[in-house]
């Protein structure tokens, strides 16, 4: 069994765990155990809640910590809100012999406890997506390839557009999610990969939110990559290296 911590990888909204494949193949070749999580909100069920997404990640974490393995939670975009909330109580639990030792985040934010995802966005969706009230799904308004994958070759970008799923709007929009939102980044160290060419979550906004989190007391180390919103696809080697460096820092 590898002595390295297990990596639990959380995708963003609309995305499947397949988005992590390039990075996990690189990391598995270096003896990391990788567990990409499927978010229930991406499974075409509009009644899915933010709590359902949290529980999916938490189940993956506990499956490892209960076996004595330490875990690093790797998150992207909306997955950051989910992953940070899922680590609540897992960094120093008496119920498990393993624990979560860090968060590796990219193109994401650092939400405070008790604040829903939509309230963290200022109370309304950004211009890139809207809610279809009739279907209960969040619908992309911006052209997805340009929004998420503009630095990939056109054909590959279109491939990933074809992999996007229906995203339930309830986890993104409902204020009920606030009761489950937790600032796990206040409990454990976090590394952050800022994406300088991001058209979905602008670089300046990322830097601002990182500073807010630091000012709140978060232990956050920042690295940058010249990438779109999806560095795990356009810059997999750099992303894998970032995760490895973060793990080394967490392990000490």
Automatic annotation (TrEMBL):
InterPro entries, per database record: AB_hydrolase_1, AB_hydrolase_fold, Sec-Metab_Biosynth_Hydrolase
Record-linked SUPFAM superfamilies: alpha/beta-Hydrolases
GO MF term set: hydrolase activity
Coiled coil regions, renumbered to chain: none
Keywords, comma-separated and alphabetical: Hydrolase
Pfam families assigned: Abhydrolase_6
Domain AB hydrolase-1: 7-241
PANTHER family, per the entry: AB HYDROLASE-1 DOMAIN-CONTAINING PROTEIN, AB HYDROLASE-1 DOMAIN-CONTAINING PROTEIN-RELATED
The name this protein goes by in its record: Alpha/beta-hydrolase
Organism: Hyaloscypha bicolor E
